Amino acid sequence: EGNDGVLISNLLKDTGLVTLDSGFVNTASCESKITYIDGAEGILRYRGYPIDELANNSRFLEVAYLLIYGDLPDMDTYAAVVRRIKRHRLLHEDFKAFFTAFPSNGHPMAILQAGISGLATYYQHTLDPKDPYQIELSTVLLMAKVPTMISYISRRAQGLPLMYPDSSLQYIEDFIRMTFGMPYANHDVDPILTDALNKLLILHADHEQNCSTSTVRMVGSSEANIYASVAAGVGALSGPLHGGANEAVLRMLSKIQESDMTVQDFVNKVKNKEDGVRLMGFGHRVYKSYDPRASIAKQSAHDVLEKLGKSNEQLDIAMELEEIALKDDYFIERNLYPNVDFYTGLIYKAMGFPEEMFTPLFALGRLPGWIAQYREMITDPATKIGRPRQVYTGETERHWIPRSER
Ligand code: ACO
Fold first, then answer.
1. Nearest atom, ligand 1, residue 291 CA
2. In which pathway does it act (predicted)?
């Protein structure tokens, strides 16, 4: 805002001037009360709470509630939320056919995006973003049904039967049971797995106006329903420069492991920008210091591998990559540090998830953030339909000539 209270963007609009900010490096698209990041200091807070306090003490649904409603739930509220979500975990029986209609080796993110979009056809009574009752119900439906979808996608990819949710189990326990196919309701799910997944989902739960969240807001700004908007976010997340990086990190580590290249050779390749190769899981638009989520994920990777008694050569390669990069001028000058994706794939792998499921797990974690941001956007009176301008660099006026004369 200028001194006289007039929005500078409105002044620019009146003069016909536009700002060009490729990749929105320095353009705020909204005001938000949800997530705070200080990229220089490596600080991340959800609704004011430091990420490490939440990751070390909370349950994922508690953090989801915090992001969506603004405060941590008390005992009764939390119990009611959990109960409500449990009641909606089933997918319509007809919807099962949808998951078997895709090639079984199709990427899970493509199927997930289509599946979330498809929820709009089954729950047509929840599509009006301006109706508080409908937005409340669609929030619960998304939180309840997306884990069911992800486990269906994972099971189907392996040619295994799809399993029904079991409402006697907790959210994460039941997701693991359905995905890995433990048949009995009272089957013990290893607490090492549930604790690790709980932590990872919390770490991913929101990250202010990143690529996928901005996409959710952009689509929602046209008053498109929440399913269409979140599905668009899944599409944005699938890219290797965003959520797809967790899968790309594992591919990179395998490549180094299987080649005769040393870790230093690979780092040199990155520095020389050979074939455009990047150190996946490194660098961030906002963090110019260590990503606080990466430190928690790194510790968790050590804990999980140790508790599961798995030695892991790829973790050793990752540590060596980090050690070399953090001492190298190329990375120091560009402020390139590990981001959240650098260590998470190793944890998912140790837990037994196939690589192509890593990014859907990120999506499950990010779901409450997308919902919270959509809801904030739709209820903010300042929201306008997203419509960036451009700087036109094409032809000036020219005139049509018949094809035979071109
Ligand atoms: N490896 C090697 N060099 C890198 C890397 C990397 N991972 N990231 C950035 N750089 C270099 C660029 O080549 C560029 O160098 P230059 O100035 O010599 O041209 C400089 O650092 C700045 O890079 P930009 O691409 O301009 O930075 P930007 O902020 O646009 O990109 C991004 C951020 C996309 C995350 C980038 O760092 C990257 O591609 N990282 C690897 C992919 C990744 O891990 N993505 C996950 C991000 S976290 C998340 O989405 C959850």
1. 48
2. Carbohydrate metabolism; tricarboxylic acid cycle; isocitrate from oxaloacetate: step 1/2
